[in-house]
Amino acid sequence: MDLTILGLIAGGLTTISFVPQMIKTWQTRSAKDVSFVMLITFISGIFLWLIYGILRQDIAIIAANGVTLIFNFIILGLKIRYKNISIKPRP
To answer: Do the domain assignments include residue 11?
Structure first.
């Protein structure tokens, strides 16, 4: 199996794993169970993976992380839109 195809399949599976969360957040209009700090940290990591993929000119890394970044910006936008950001842990 070509490594690029393997990378595209792996990236595709991990990327679509965010679709249910995005749909649930959109439908319930609530992202209170999604950690703001986790989203920011994850988005930062995905952005760095995207840069890495661009520098390596690896289409599998670029495609997977580019789409994942978009999905997570959507989730972040929904979280901000529905104004249920919680940074402090609950007692």
So the answer is: no
Q: What is the CATH number of the domain that holds 43?
A: 1.20.1280.290
Domain that holds residue 47: 24-81
- Helices in 29-58 by DSSP H: which ranges? 36-56
CB neighbour class for 24 (10 Å; exposed up to 12, middle 13-18, buried from 19): middle
Q: Is 37 exposed, middle or buried (CB count within 10 Å of its CB: 0-12, 13-18, 19+)? A: exposed
| pLDDT value, residue 88 | 56
On whether the CB atoms of residues 34 and 21 are closer than 8 A, the answer is yes
Does residue 19 lie in a domain region?
no
pLDDT, tens digit, for every residue of 3-62? 889 988 988 898 898 899 889 888 888 888 888 899 999 999 999 999 999 999 999 999
- Check if the beta carbon of residue 84 is closer than 8 Å to that of residue 30: yes
91 within domain boundaries = no
